[in-house]
TrEMBL record:
The keyword Signal applies. InterPro entries: DUF3551. Keywords: Signal. Residues 1-26 form the signal peptide. This is DUF3551 domain-containing protein.
Length: 77
């Protein structure tokens, strides 16, 4: 009985530890630097449009919404 409880508690802690990390990563890739050099979907590491524009400044690149973010299914909370 004690082993079962310990196993379930460990499993719950593992899930709880990985869930916030996945959500934090999703917020950092909303915009992609796109263009001839970057291809499609491009360099998708920008949390804000302003960050992406700053990186694209002076180049032939442009910024767009990350297709993985734009076309993902919305969750009902």
């Amino acid at each position: 009985m004690r082993r079962t409880i310990l196993t379930l508690a460990s499993f719950a802690a593992l899930i709880a530890a990985t869930l916030p990390a996945a959500q934090a990563h999703a917020a950092n890739d909303r915009y992609c630097l796109q263009g001839r050099i970057w291809g499609y979907p491009g360099n998708c590491q920008f949390a804000s449009y302003q960050q992406c524009q700053a990186s694209a400044s002076g180049t032939s690149a442009y910024c767009g919404v990350n297709p993985r973010y734009a076309f993902s299914q919305q969750r009902d909370y």
